[in-house]
Every structure is written in structure tokens, then in C-alpha cells.
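In this supplementary section we document a worked example of the pipeline. Step one takes a protein sequence of length 250 as its only input; no multiple sequence alignment statistics are reported here. Step two produces a three-dimensional model, which step three serialises into C-alpha cells for compact storage. The input and output of this example are shown verbatim.
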Amino acid sequence: MMELDEKIYRFFENRGRDVTVEYLNLGLGYTAVTTSDGGIGIAYTCFGAKESCSFMNSYYDFEGRPAVELLEKIKSTHPLERTMALALVNALNYEYALSLPEDKENRALFESFGIGEKTRVAMVGYFAPIAGMLGKMGALLEVIDISKKIGHQADFYDRLENWAQVAFITSTSILNSTTEDILRHAGKGVKTVMLGPSTPMIGEVFSHLPVHMLAGTVPLEKEKVLKAIRHGFGTREIQRFSRKSYLALF
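The serialised model returned by step three reads:
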């Protein structure tokens, strides 16, 4: 278990006792959770190859139960349990996330770190729109994405430690428990960003890690977001009904 998991759990433990899980939907692309206090949170649905008709080890209905019961699953080794728990975390943090500044065109993301021509960027998880923008800016890009069979881990870690100036790290790494291992390879002076719709916008839980910015997605039109998730849509469609927000940690 990552230290990050424990810090997330402790940060929301008391709040999780005061609210209940209202709705839980494990969509093919993303998972959504709503809570009794009006919160909504999403996270990438993380699972491997489909080998049977059941993805869960045992039946349990979290809806109508204290949120802390689902929050506990952030410490699980089961990727779908972690997925549900991270979506819950984002729901519990919803009101705060709504107060954060918007970064609709990713300007804060690029300008905060002075990204431009020849800037050396390492990317964990291939974000096609971001990669396209970096290419147009003339930045140099090194990518690893195991699910897409892009890159080689040892080579990438060497580049992250000895070459990169900025690192973009998918928050899906929280779901597969690799965040802290990745960041251990970040070289001195590398500016790191956790990004993607799964990102928990809570600076305190990353205080032990060299993370300089959080860039996430905050749902605005709840029913449309939930419908998009039920229908198996992905990031582009969900962001139509949400906003991209950021939290600078430096």
C-alpha cells in the first residue's frame, strides 16, 4: 500500500462518516459516485482483461451506506475497488474542487512551468491532446504508457531522472499503485503534474511527494456526466459537461 493511500483515507475519514454514498456507477470508461451532501466524483475505471462475468470478489451494496466504508477501499489491492474509492474521494472533495480556478485551454498547465520550444517533457500515460499541443510548441516528449505498449520502463525512468525538466503523470497511477514508484525516479528539479479526470484535487495528501500541480476535471452538469458514464463515453464527452481545474502546489 502506498503512503498516499493512507493519507487520502485519513484526510477524508471523518467526513466519510458523516455522509452516505448515494449512487455508484462502474462505467466502462469512467466510474462515478455521488454522495448525500451533493457531491459527485469520477475516476478512470481500472481493470484488466475480462476473464469472467464477474469483476468483483464478493457482493456488497455501498449505496445508502456510510461513505467511509467505500473510502476504506482506497487501500485495497483490487483495481476496481480502488477505482470506486477514488471516485468517492473526488465526490467528498467536490465543493472544494468547485472553488479552484479553471484552466480551459491548459494555459496554466504550460505557462506555470515555462513549457516551450525544446522543453524536455516526460509523460506517464499518453494524453493525445496534450501531446499534440506540446508538439506544436516544439517541446521534446518522452512517453510511457504500458496499456498502449508505448515505451520501456527502464529507459523511461532513466529519462525521467536524468533528462526531463517537466513530468506529466496520469492519476491512473494512483489506481495501479505506481505513483510513488514513478516519483522516486524524478530527477532533482523536475516539475511534476498529476493530471486527468481521476486527479484528487487535495494538496495535503501529496505533501510527501514532489508534486507541483494537480490538474483535474470537476463535473458541472451532473446528470449529463452520469449519463455519459453509463453510456460508456470517455474523457472528451465527460469534459463537455465539466470543467478543467488546477491547483498549484508551489
